[in-house]
Amino acid sequence: MMSSSATAPEATATGTCTCVVGLQWGDEAKGKLVDPLAEDHDIVVRYNGGANAGHTIVRGGRSFKLSLLPSGVLNPRLTSLIGNGVVIYPPRFIEEVSQLREAGIPVGTNLLLSDRAHVVFPYHMEEERLSETDGGGAIGTTGRGIGPCYQDKVGRTCGIRVGDLLVPEYLRDRLRMIVPRKNRWIEALAAGKEAKKFDADALAQEYLGYGEALRPHVHDTAHFLRKSLQHGKRILFEAAQGSLLDIDHGTYPYVTSSNSSPAGIWSGSGLPARRLTRVLGVVKAYTTRVGRGPFPTELTDGPDGLGEAIRRKGREYGTVTGRPRRVGWLDLVALRYAAEVGGVDELAVTLLDVLSCVPEIAICTAYEVQGERVQEFPADARLLEQAKPVLERLSGWYGEELTQVRRIAELPAAARRYVDRIAEELRRPVRIISVGPDREQTILP
Ligand code: IMP
Q: Are 279 and 344 in contact (CB under 8 A)?
């Protein structure tokens, strides 16, 4: 019989790993929740996406807009970490760091950046611009070069990682091989239209400069995370985008290019999958979507309709692009699916206050697809395009402002019923309700 006195290294791990993840198509106000939750943690980690994310955090009446840095960076006591699964546009990283410093928030070695994270170059944005304007096939992306950068990562021949920006000879040689290929590809995509051309040595010079600015932050973050967990640290993972935009589990092809559900944590941070202790799923009280793709509960009732009223009251305009977000009713079919995919333990309901602006509320409990009632979220975006929502009308709390409410008992009965219904349908408890953008505007039932 085999036996061993050695303890498996993971068995000594005593820290905790919590993930905050959006269960819709992004913009569920995760940043607002991560900010206070971070206080009970030691490390806040971003593991997916890039400067396509938009986190608005309102603190003491001041609003901070972050697209690349983790929300935890507002709290200098914490270590904020950008994992290997994120794609980095260095000018944006540098800009966000300087904005915070100008606001008096210290940012130094409390911000760590993975040496394995891939780097976004201007040719990625040009590739994206051309493929998004090339007639059919547009996704409605944020134009931040995210898809082409991940393509290069997976394709391997043209990927460049943060660590490479610190090795001048290597970076120059690599760009001398990559840039002529990119120029040929861009010319082919442009098909006679005007397009940018890039110079390898000029790009190398520019990015070596960025490398020096990033150097104090660059780290083997995966190793750091594993060690931290063994030393009992409490780690908070902050997903970017929403689960329905996940490259594998979302509404493909109208998704982003990373795993925005908790599925991305292991590959995007280097922490073993078995270590996750808690997943908090964030549900906006209605649904929004930016960009193209199926949206069964979308409200398309025009400039005087309920959709527009919700958009205005909820300030539903993209943080990154300023685009008006598409707005619709809560979709329980999609939410049940996202909660299962993400292994969600408990829920936060956000922007509940916004629904005070509509005289009636509906929720979608099932779809009608090709004459059949469907409870499961279809994998095929074409089927989802045809799905008609089965709507249940609920009484609302029209005109009753919720922004001052701090206790569940003070909520109008209809609002309480609405939250209870979400918990019942998703078979998970609601732990947090948000009734306004400021961190004070939160109910902890
Ligand atoms: P990409 O991530 O820029 O490639 O865009 C792919 C899709 O994801 C588009 O529909 C975008 O509008 C959407 N998307 C990307 N980031 C966000 C986000 O932070 N919130 C909401 N939608 C997003």
A: yes
The residue range of the domain holding 30 is: 16-114+218-275
Query: Of the residues 27, 42, 115, 331, which is catalytic?
Result: 27
Residue indicated by tokens 């939160």: 442
Taking the model in full, what pTM does it have? 0.94
Q: CATH no. for residue 43?
A: 3.40.440.10
Burial (CB count <10 Å: 0-12, 13-18, 19+), residue 261: buried
Name the DSSP letter for residue 26. S
Express each pLDDT in 167-195 by its tens digit: 999 999 999 999 999 999 999 999 999 99
41 belongs to the catalytic site:
no
CA 309 to chain centre: 25
Residue nearest to atom 11 of ligand 1 (CA): 141
Query: What are the C-alpha distances in Å from 417 to residues 274, 404, 424, 427?
Result: 35, 19, 10, 15
Give me the CATH number covering residue 360.
Answer: 3.90.170.10
pLDDT bucket at 6, cuts 50 / 70 / 90: low
